[in-house]
Hints:
The protein is of the alpha/beta class.
Amino acid sequence: MPHPFRTIEETHNALKNGTLTVRALVDEYLAVITEKNPDINAYLEVFTDIDEQVSRAQTMFDNGTATMLTGIPVAMKDNMLIKGHVASASSKMLESYVASYDGTVARILKEHGAILIGRTNMDEFAMGSSTENSAFGRTKNPLDTSRVPGGSSGGAAAALAMGGALISLGSDTGGSIRQPAAFCDLVGMKPTYGTISRHGLIAMASSLDQIGPMTHTVRDAEILFEALSVHDPMEATSVPVEKRISTHTEKKKIGVPRKMISQEGLDPEILTAFEISLDKLKTQGYEIVDVDMPLSEHALAVYYILQPAEVSSNLARFDGIRFGLSEDGNTLLEVYEKSRGKGFGKEVRRRMILGAYILSHGYYDAYYAKALAVRSMIEKEFETLFEQVDMIATPTSPFLPFVAGEKVADPLAMYMSDFFAVPANIAGIPAISLPAGHAKNGLPIGLQLMAPLFEDKMLFTCGKAFLGE
């Protein structure tokens, strides 16, 4: 097993000076996967072309063209396209879909010579907070297998937590990187919207989705972010590098929305850990001030109008005719019903129906248009707040990793997992979850920091100080 969890830089140095070979490194991780994955179910597939990848990476070290990511084993969430491999989004609808091209993040990682180990389990089409909505079985939390690893990037988090990859990539629509990172004692980062390309990411809610790193250290997340955050002409919302303007200079004042944090349902041990984290930040020279975020308290309600609406639109293409699973029927309607009924799970159908309702005539103005207006107000609220403070701190999740099955029958309780995470997606700002201690029963707790648009580096600087890196 890797010792205990290597960092990118120390692994790179070992590979560069010859004390470690790419083959030996990758074999360590494959051995862990062989031992643990049958129980954890983090990976849906371990790729068969790893030998070719290893050979290519070792050649890069031998001829002096290796980068920091060369030879680094990476776990990829199952909604990212990798040419020649299945990308199912953990859905029966796309169970047999083989990607015909590389998404931008996969292409960049291949250019760096990273080792794409395999594709990881997730909530179907990224809809969920526990990785229990996968069509291919739930993923267990390696820290306590009776509990969930969070979601929707639960497989990517579990792969790291069990030692089955050195770093991983997830996608975050409303906390789906940060919440599983908190549940698995990892660093998880949602970058500023538009900094990492979504080209080749199977869309769930396009105005909210963002690819980001999951790692054991903040520095590893920073290295991965820096490699991937390039302008991509293939992706319409990718922001040109020259427009990613950093304006904050002090970076030492952190706002705390006390009223928002005092909402019902917050686990007392999480609140205690949060206060200890704030004290730790104070000792590192950060000033802690109270702020008010009355509009952001409604972000979850806005999210569950905009997100299902975009889900309904994005998944309309999967109709049994053009894409994905197709079931025979005597009429066109029967083809639709059979294909979608068999191809989509319960949560996906729930959100598609809700989205269609929201976008229907007579309800569009009452719900969707109003949610868009409140979204703009939340964006402005953050703009105003960031004139007063440099970052905002909250817990990552209102509750500890929960027992599998505990919230399946209550979708609203499940949705509350994202209460603190969703505002960052609504506003498009960067946010990071950092390991922030443990409850009495040993379960991990996460601290979330949010920063202004394009101030992603501010989060890395603060995160490294917080964790003593």
